[in-house]
């Protein structure tokens, strides 16, 4: 263990900071969704981050879909919320106003895919 982290006071401070940061992030996403229709918002990424996001964020369970390029995830539903998992093509014709991207490395790829599907949503990284 690193000498600086072995002090209980240091660990307590780190835990408190994590707790506050977590609550602040959940509140930020709650406020974000409060200004949008969650049913016109999708989460791109149906892995553990995406599933946790729709379970934890207030109104997250009302999002219309989780999007994943993995065909083995498509046609399934997120545990706890029942949010449908669709492939990118499943967005065609849907009223998607916001895409929340779970992995920042895929932001540009998601933007390109949305454009190719004829969508012009806000794209934001979680």
Descriptive notes:
One of its GO terms (molecular function) is methyltransferase activity. The chain has 126 residues and is α/β, with parallel strands linked by helices. It has one domain (37-125): NAD(P)-binding Rossmann-like Domain (Rossmann fold, 3-Layer(aba) Sandwich). 37% of the residues lie in helices and 13% in strands. It contains three helices and five strands. The chain has helices at residues 8-34, 48-56, 107-116; strands at 41-44, 65-67, 85-86, 98-101, 122-125. The chain is elongated. The chain starts with 7 loop residues before the first helix and ends with a strand.
List the helices and strands and how they pair.
Layout: H1 8-34, E1 41-44, H2 48-56, E2 65-67, E3 85-86, E4 98-101, H3 107-116, E5 122-125
Parallel strand pairs: 1-2, 1-4, 2-3, 4-5
Notable characteristics:
126 residues; alpha/beta; Rossmann fold
Q: What is the count of DSSP helices, taking H or I runs of 4+ residues?
A: 3
Beta-strand content bin: 5-15%
What structural class results from the helix and strand content? Answer: alpha/beta
Helix-residue proportion: 25-40%
In the CATH hierarchy, what is the superfamily?
NAD(P)-binding Rossmann-like Domain
Domain C-methyltransferase: 35-116
InterPro entries: MeTrfase_14
Protein name: C-methyltransferase C-terminal domain-containing protein
Organism: Mesorhizobium muleiense
């Amino acid at each position: 263990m690193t000498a600086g982290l072995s002090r209980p006071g240091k660990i307590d401070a780190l835990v408190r900071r994590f707790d506050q940061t977590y609550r602040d992030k959940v509140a930020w996403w709650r406020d974000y969704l409060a200004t949008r229709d969650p049913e016109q918002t999708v989460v791109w990424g149906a892995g553990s981050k995406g599933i946790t996001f729709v379970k934890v964020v207030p109104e997250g369970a009302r999002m219309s879909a989780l999007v994943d390029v993995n065909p083995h995830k498509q046609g399934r539903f997120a545990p706890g919320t029942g949010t449908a998992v669709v492939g990118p093509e499943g967005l065609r014709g849907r009223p998607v106003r916001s895409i929340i991207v779970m992995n920042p490395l895929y932001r540009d790829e998601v933007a390109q895919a949305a454009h190719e599907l004829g969508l012009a949503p806000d794209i934001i990284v979680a």
